[in-house]
Amino acid sequence: MTAGPAPPRSPAARHLPGSASRKPCVARRNSSAASCGFRGTRSRPGNVRRRLRIVVHSLQTLVAAACCAASLQTFAQTDFSNVEIVTHHVSGNVHMLVGAGGNMAVSVGEDGVLLVDNQFAPLTDKIVAAIRTLSDAPIRFVINTHVHGDHTGGNANFAALGATLVAHENVRARLAAADSPEGALPVLTFDEEISFHFNGEEVSIIPTVSPAHTDGDTLVYFRESNVIHTGDVFVTLSFPVADTSNGGRLTGHIDVLNQLLELSHTAAGFLSGFGNAPGAYPERPVGALGRPHDRSDTLIVPGHGRLADEVELLLFRNMIVVIRDRVRTWAERGMTLEEIIAARPALGWEARYGADTGPRTTRRFIETLYNEVTAGE
How far is CA 130 from CA 92, 99, 121, 134, 307, in A? Predict the structure, then answer.
């Protein structure tokens, strides 16, 4: 696929003073598909291209790990009978699927179906039924953005349907250390950017530049459709969460959001989409697929919450930076964790992102930041 001219870049400042600008990862486009370990795929549409290293694993040994096993048990006890899987067209080939758990993205086209994340195992039939309203083609690939069960719970079911499971090598390692169902381990793993050439566009599978939500976070960028699935490194419903038991770092979210800001762009003349309000578009450029883009600004499928754009990425990144700096300053002045929590460093954002119950509480966010900054991060 021949890339068209670069889209206009947003004039917005993307990096705060003192923060390093990061270039987006770019996949090597002339590498051999045969090196992926799939025989006879060189001339097939929808083949997989390798940037540096892809490892194909057999589905064998599964070892117990208490944390993930307990999580899966909790999921198994949840009643999903009333859950509805709702589809939303995002742009180009890409649709967002919403149900119970992390948001999913699906690419549909002549090469088949590529699914990003798959929520919980009991929802697989409903997810497949929703996909069938979009396409009758086989589900060929399932990509995990990270290890958590609300994103990987259906792995074994989709593998049984013939899909190839794809994930960061740390996702496989952590699933293999848990009491995962038979067949739930990704068979295609990576630790560098790889590209799928699928349904007429390049789909970049990009490891994050730093551990953030976990140590296996992955961004999925549908380049022609101009859509990025972020996994849980970006959400619109809460403060970010670093799962430290799975290698996460809250301060790593800042690096990853900078990475996302470099990948995304807002069209010239676009009116701020904060709150997903309609914007003004000066043109609808024709892309390599020979049809106008649905939108000329990058759309973001967050791990949880509604569709977003570059403006919201910027605001979310800045929010973390400001609160981190407050916590660090107050800690350096000798304030204890409880004193800092009582001072409410996130006050201006609590109405939008705050919570007192559940896994994503304001207290957890501040406590994790405090632990990281007092450890020198």
Answer: 18, 10, 15, 7, 19
Give the CATH number, domain containing residue 305: 3.60.15.10
> Domain range holding 49?
33-311
Q: Which of 1, 184, 199 is nearest to 92 (CA)?
A: 199
Of the two residues 322 and 289, the one the predictor is more confident about is 322
| 230 in a structural domain | yes
Query: Is 115 among the domain residues?
Result: yes
Spatial strand order of the sheet with 201-207 comes to 48-49, 194-198, 201-207, 218-222, 227-229, 299-301, 308-309
**256-283 pLDDT per residue, tens:** 999 999 999 876 544 444 443 333 333 4
**How would you class 364 by CB atoms within 10 Å of its CB: exposed for 0-12, middle for 13-18, buried for 19 or more?**
middle
- Cα–Cα distance, 296 to 212 (Å, whole number): 28
Q: Give the number of residues written for the chain.
A: 377
320 occurs within a structural domain? no
Look up tokens 């790593």; give the residue: 252
* Total tally of structural domains belonging to the chain: 1
Q: In percent, how much of the chain has pLDDT > 70?
A: 72
Structure tokens belonging to residue 104 = 């999913």
**Domain contains 371:** no
Q: Which two tokens stand for residue 97?
A: 């699927």
